[in-house]
Task: structure prediction
Amino acid sequence: YQRRVHGTFKSGLGSYMSRKVAAPKKAAPPPAAKKSKSKSSAPAASVSEAIASTSAADTRIQQFFDQYRDGEVFGAHGPEPAICLDGLGRLFGDLHVDPTDVITLMLSFVMGGCGRSWRFEGFLAGCKKFNADTVEKLRERLPQIRAECSGANKVAFLEGVFHFYKAQPSHRNIPIGEAADLLATVLPSFRFLEEFKEFAAGEAATENVSEDAWKILVSAFASTRSDLSDWDASSYWPLLIDNFVEFVQNKRAA
Result:
């Protein structure tokens, strides 16, 4: 805050000729002190209530998380509690969803899943976003989650689900066979799906798919022709993608 102080200084001249001292002027009465406005306690109370409400919501979500917590994963600061495969299986059962339904991967994306596990930080953010602090409320939000991951956030979901499918959070790649299964689950409309399955089961069976290669699969191929005649071969692509494009072109030309 800035405070401006305005002072007025007056200099009086004495009469040197008469050497008389001028009678001092009566000092002006001091300005009336401004009444300080008493601060209302309402805003502070509102903040306190908001903090209490947030804390209560976090506590309910923590209790929800603890119902399914069944392991730990190593994070940046050491081991962290997590909902792992057994816990996820129980949760999906209580949500009445088929484990093979793509909604399970959508949930993992919403909850910030990584390495086939959910940590509390991501679980908390996901539950807050959809206002779900019990399994019953989360079950009610499933249509909303499905719609979001199939619509406005489709690209983000398709790219982000890669992180959940890794065997461990620290891993950077997934085996190509698992990538083919994942692609069939999250993007069954992928026009080169059958070719990719054949490619993954044959000459590339021992390869791994990086995150960059995965993003290209779910995005760059969407706008190409079915024979890949318009594919930009001059761009820098991961070797796996170059090999797959050559595989498709040879297959279509045969």
The beta strands are 71-75, 78-83, 118-119, 173-175, 208-210. Residues 1-25, 38-42 have pLDDT under 50 and may be disordered. The CA atoms of residues 191 and 221 lie 8 Å apart. The chain is about 50% helix and 5% strand.
